[in-house]
Amino acid sequence: MEQHVLVIFPHPDDETFGCGGTIAQFTQTGVPVTYVCATLGQMGRNMGKPFFATRESLPNIREAELEEACQALGIQRLIKLGLRDKTIEFEDPELLSARIEQILQEVRPSLVLTHYPGYAVHPDHNALGEVTILAISRLPVQERPMVYVHAFARDCQNRLGPPDIINDISALSEKKLAAIRAHRSQSQVFFPRIANGQTKKPSSKNSLSHMLERESFWTYHFS
After folding, report:
1. Distance between alpha carbon 115 and the CA centroid of its chain, in Å?
2. What pTM did the predictor assign?
């Protein structure tokens, strides 16, 4: 059983879509989870459907959605780094990795969930995953937590091989769905499908039904 899980992602909703079921599994069994969210997703393209956000109001709306989703998943602590959306790749990696290392020293997690650098599509995903791995690599080997990395680039399985962790989260699907609903500005496109029962239909690995059944990770191996 894990002692403490630290989740490190750049945007509100990354924790939900990528590993919400896995987080809920941990919290349901009493494992504390801390989430480090780097930005408020203020440059996100989705403003709700129909629109209920503007570019000016979106950061506050997404912050409130994030806090609601964390509550749905049972996340006990939320740390907001206050970085600007779509700019993490331009942050000083030494300074940012030092901030993350400080959090690692404070939380002392047994497991970290983050994005696999280079295989997570969005520049923010890749940049934050890279500095997170850098921060962990600077810990003494005996103090390093296990690291599960989330990857979803089109060619990731061809280059990395199949994920070594395929987590059945179907028993926690309602908790994950509640968190997806909480991120309503980003997820309203799914709501008609939910209402029509389409989440139960088998479909592609990128479908909502797939996201409510399983989550996949690779174990990161430090050289």
Report:
1. 8
2. 0.92
* Residue with tokens 């000083």, as numbered in its chain: 92
Residue owning tokens 């987590």: 167
Closest by CA position to 2, among listed 27, 36, 35, 37: 27
Listed in sequence order, the residues at least 6 apart from 30 whose beta carbon sits closer than 8 Å to its beta carbon are none
All domains of the chain in start order, with CATH: 5-219 (3.40.50.10320)
Q: Are strands 33-39 and 77-83 parallel, antiparallel or unpaired?
A: parallel
Choose between 191 and 37: higher pLDDT: 37
Angle at 60 between CA 116 and CA 106, to 5 degrees: 50
CA R_g for the chain: 17
How does the average pLDDT of the chain come out, rounded? 92
Phi, then psi, of 101 in degrees rounded to 5:
-65, -35
